[in-house]
Design a protein that fits this description.
The structure is a homodimer. Chain A has about 325 residues and is α/β, with parallel strands linked by helices. Helices cover about 45% and strands about 15% of the residues of chain A. Chain A is built from 10 helices and 12 strands. Chain A has helices at about 15-30, 40-45, 80-90, 105-115, 150-165, 190-200, 225-250, 255-275, 300-315, 320-325; strands at about 1-5, 30-35, 55-60, 95-100, 125, 130, 135-140, 175-180, 205-210, 220-225, 280-285, 290-295. In chain A, strands 3-2-1-4-12-11-5 form a 7-stranded mixed beta sheet, sandwiched between helices. Chain A has a 5-stranded mixed beta sheet with strand order 6-7-10-8-9, sandwiched between helices. The longest helix of chain A is centred in the last third of the chain and has 26 residues, at about 225-250. Chain A is globular and about 60 Å long. The relative contact order of chain A is 0.17. The interface between A and B is large, with 50 and 50 residues.
């Protein structure tokens, strides 16, 4: 399997990216194509003793920054690592593409360069978030399309279910509709219509889900419009991160607390790991004609390796074929 | 000052409500009118040794349950404690009304029985949430009106600023607009138009705020439509609650962990208190012609007492007069 990698995307590129690639290459037997500035990538590999001799390296001159306009992937930066890599994927030079770079640009480029699966109205950005009991759920759409139509929510549910079943191994995934209350009549026109579509979809629809129930594993796939999803994603991540750092701070406050920390260290670490969205590697862009996977922007080598593993599973599981059959 | 109290509203009514009232009556020198089923209230007071002899008691026969339709306050339950109390407030029988009951019904009843401040388009449900650094912020609207127009968001900002300054003592409160990114062009038409209005409002507008920055004190008043606000509120509370209960679980897991817990107990309690939205007592319904205050549904006596204190401050600070001047 050949995976194309954006060597320049993310806060820790290229070092942590190529480090993750080197580990994944051996462990998962992948062919990796690094796309990025040849000089910078080679120098980083050399200085850090990372063997990239078995990876193909495609030279590009530009980089899409985190705060660049998403449209830059199409317009102003045609020789960016992301734009070139997406074209290579579209042209059949690899089986999948992974980037830790600009999410917006990846959604735009995935949709318009790699193109959509036939029948899919709009691809959705679909991060995997941890439940607080060891599991995880997919949130789709988390911001690829701020406004959504009911049919799009139905497709998000179909695509999310296929992914969670085939890649994450969850049998008969429970689909929830993000809403302000659990009763059927809650919400606005979008929720009313989407509820009807989901109820009659043949999916394992569990009804409206209030976001306060998400940490307790209320569903395996949560669907909503991109504006709402983005709010849920960032609140979920933000509160968890702020609280965990508070706990950390508490334990390093003084000697007494440090003693306590030593006693519970292994349990604390296990808990932190459970909540750590980095463990889940990232977010597929659901609905593109070939697998496009977003690794977390702050990904270090281990997280990026995880992302490569998930991408491999994404290809192996034929999720895209499954979706194509379901939406046509 | 005369405060009307819904003796039947909330998960712990009437016991914790009347207990909170008894404490507040002495501490804050309030006249309290309890509205609820006379027999039940009297029996609860007697059995628990709570002195309600100096409170007025108004008998009602019905109760609005948490899962009742919000419209029930107007239509099917005219003799409910909430409906009767709201009519009393509208008729001038008291200076403010506090209930731990059904939020939706309180918003509907507040708007249509107590009525709006002249010039206010729609009242907003405005919970106070903790920052994770000891402060707090107001989120408005958290669900009174699922759909909002830009002018409504401007009014939420005006009302929220007045409240946070006058009642919570925050000088020149920073107003943020909930959005998917910090740049001015982010979001949909509602956000674009609201941004313009807020920029030119004379308020201390700090621009778009991403929900991941809320725990770090990004603003003092966050404005958004009611659907978005409800998602943020429930995700914020849900994740914090789930994580804190995980920490608690960890510390009672075994003897070793219990020893550690004893060492950090006082710090842990202080942290839990910082995150505890119960500490902030609840949420005013901003924009009603007289103060209507929602105490947390799970309020115990201490939280309800806090709610009464905040309601007293709400009346004392003449916030409603301030708003009336600003919106006319």
């Amino acid at each position: 399997m050949k995976i194309i990698v954006d060597a320049m995307g993310g806060d820790n590129a290229p070092l942590e990216i190529i480090k993750g690639c080197a580990e994944a290459q051996t462990e998962f037997e992948l062919d990796i194509i690094l796309v990025g500035n040849e000089d910078i990538v080679k120098k980083s590999a050399q200085e850090n003793g990372i063997d990239i001799s078995k990876m193909q390296l495609v030279n590009t001159t530009e980089v899409i920054a985190t705060d660049d306009d998403p449209q830059s992937v199409l317009k102003t930066k045609p020789d960016s690592s992301m734009a070139v890599a997406l074209k290579m994927l579209a042209d059949g030079d690899g089986d999948a593409f992974v980037s830790a770079g600009n999410s917006g640009a990846l959604c735009v480029g995935g949709t318009l360069i790699v193109k959509r699966i036939k029948g899919v109205k709009r691809p959705g950005f679909a991060p995997i978030l941890p439940h607080f009991n060891g599991g995880c759920f997919m949130l789709v759409d988390a911001g690829a399309n701020l406004e959504s139509r009911p049919e799009m929510l139905l497709q998000y549910a179909i695509m999310g279910s296929a992914y969670m079943e085939k890649v994450m191994g969850i049998e008969n995934p429970r689909v929830g509709l993000a809403n302000v209350g659990s009763e059927e009549h809650k919400g606005l026109e979008l929720q009313h219509k989407a509820f009807e579509l989901l109820k009659n979809s043949g999916l394992n629809f569990v009804g409206n889900v209030e976001s306060r129930d998400l940490p307790y594993g209320a569903c395996d796939v949560l669907v909503c419009d991109g504006f709402t999803g983005n709010m849920i994603l960032k609140t979920y991540e933000g509160v968890a991160k702020a609280l965990m750092s508070k706990v950390k701070e508490l334990f390093s406050k003084n000697t007494k607390n440090k003693v306590a920390a030593a006693l519970v260290m292994s349990d604390l670490k296990a808990m932190a790991k459970e909540f750590d969205y980095n463990e889940y590697g990232g977010a597929p862009i659901m609905g593109t004609a070939k697998p496009v996977f977003k690794a977390h922007g702050s990904a270090k080598a281990k997280t990026f390796k995880n992302a490569l593993r998930l991408t491999k599973d994404y290809v192996d599981a034929n999720v895209i074929e499954e979706i194509a059959k379901a939406v046509k």
